[in-house]
C-alpha cells in the first residue's frame, strides 16, 4: 500500500460521466458539483479525464473537473 494520497477527480460543476471520451458517449451517470471520483490514470489531450464510476471506466469533461491529490 502506498503512503501517498490517491488521485481523485473533483467536479467544479454538475455534469455527466460518459462511456467514451466524447459528448456523443452514452451517459453512465450524473455527478454533482463537489463530488470526487477515483482518477484512472488517463487524460486525453486535456479535454477528457478517465475516472472509476460504479466499477467501470467512465469519462468526464476536463472543463467540469480537475485532478487532485497524489504525487505532484
Can you put this structure into words, describing what you see?
The mean pLDDT is 87. The chain has no helices and seven strands. It has a five-stranded antiparallel beta sheet, with no helix packed on it. Strands 2-3 form a two-stranded antiparallel sheet. Helix content is 0%, strand content 53%. It has a single domain, classed as SH3 type barrels (Roll), CATH 2.30.30.40. By secondary structure, the protein is an all-beta fold. The radius of gyration is 12 Å and the shape is globular.
Q: How would you summarize this macromolecular structure in one to three sentences?
A:
This protein has 72 residues and is mainly beta. It has strands at residues 8-11, 15-18, 27-31, 36-44, 48-53, 56-61, 65-68.
List the helices and strands in order.
EEEEEEE
Our count of domains comes out at: 1
Backbone structural class: mainly beta
CATH H-tier superfamily: SH3 Domains
In the predicted model, the low-confidence regions spanning at least 5 consecutive residues are none
Spatial strand order of the main sheet: 6-5-4-1-7
- What is the share of helical residues? under 10%
CATH class: Mainly Beta
- Which overall shape is indicated by the principal axes computed on the Cα atoms? globular
Number of strands: 7
Q: What is the count of DSSP helices, taking H or I runs of 4+ residues?
A: 0
Could you please say which CATH topology applies here? SH3 type barrels
- Terminal-residue CA separation: 18 Å
The whole-number mean of residue pLDDT values reads 87
Task: Give Rg in angstroms.
Answer: 12 Å
Main beta-sheet annotation = 5 strands, antiparallel
